[in-house]
Design a protein that fits this description.
Layout lengths: L1 E5 L12 E11 H8 L19 H14 L2 H9 L5 E3 L9 E2 L2 E2 L15 H18 L4 H27 L9 H11 L1 H7 L29 H11 L14 E6 L1
Antiparallel strand pairs: 1-2, 2-6, 3-6, 4-5
Helix pairs in contact: 2-3, 4-5
């Protein structure tokens, strides 16, 4: 369970006028339980996500009961105060390329990263800044600018997707190897989660090599360095390329708010 203050109405940040956001990760069996949670009182199923106001009263009651049984009193009170809780299944997605001709993707369009990294805005801003810089640097060769953009931000997006999967491995209930189990136990430690949950930059090896500065941009070369390639294709990706919906026993993490 996470809890933190956010701005209130019209961006008001004065004490007493702010809102408080809570996030609770729970597991749900995909075949039956998740389908039940995403079905409203009339029996209509919403496979892509049920609107907040349509969640069954029984499900909301189960949430409050689970809070009483598992959470500290302060968080339990927070759950009680939420009039219309909502949830979403946690999923991710990546693509092999962010460019198609003169069409460029950025933000969550090419890479949907699990929320453990807290990187949505930063990722999109980094895409926009690099794209603008490259177009300004190569006004006479837009195709080259787009190729550099595609290479750099695809590599960064793939790093974030892999890193968020490692962070999420702590929620697994079964493992395919001792290595997976050890990794899950490592990321289950509070010290590890707190230090890496909002990690912005990839390991130092990613940013090394000719033409790469500290923000991960490569200007003007479009040739990847051996060190930056290894960081992603080797230890960076590790062995966690499975889809959330292929997790052992069909467990899909859910995010309650």
């Amino acid at each position: 369970m996470l809890g933190y203050p956010i701005a209130g109405a019209d961006g008001d940040v004065r004490p007493g006028h702010r809102r408080f956001n809570i996030v609770w990760y729970l597991r749900a069996e995909a075949e039956k339980e998740l389908k039940r949670l995403m079905t409203d009182e009339t029996g209509r199923h919403y496979p892509l996500g049920i609107p907040p106001g349509l969640i069954q009263a029984e499900v909301v009651a189960e949430l409050r009961a689970a809070a009483h049984s598992n959470l500290a009193l302060q968080f339990c009170k927070m759950v009680e105060l939420v009039e219309t809780p909502f949830f979403q299944s946690v999923a991710d997605m990546d693509v092999p390329s962010m460019i198609a001709g003169r069409v460029s993707l950025l933000g969550d369009a090419p890479f949907v990263v699990r929320p453990h990294c807290g990187m949505g805005v930063t990722k999109a801003a980094g895409n926009a800044v690099l794209l603008a810089d490259l177009l300004a640097a190569f006004p006479g060769d837009i195709d080259h600018a787009l190729r550099v953009y595609d290479e750099e931000r695809c590599r960064y997006g793939q790093y974030l997707t892999a890193h968020s999967r490692r962070l999420g491995s702590q929620m697994k209930q079964s493992y395919t190897s001792d290595e997976e189990r050890r990794e899950a136990e490592y990321y289950r430690r509070p010290a590890t989660s707190n230090s890496e949950a909002a990690m912005i930059m990839p390991p130092a090896t990613y940013c090394q090599g000719a033409g790469i500065n500290s923000t991960g941009h490569r200007i003007p070369s479009a040739t990847p360095s051996a060190t930056s390639t290894r960081a992603i294709s080797g230890g960076g990706a590790m062995a966690l390329e499975e889809s959330l919906f292929d997790l052992p026993m069909g467990n899909v993490p859910m995010l309650w708010r």
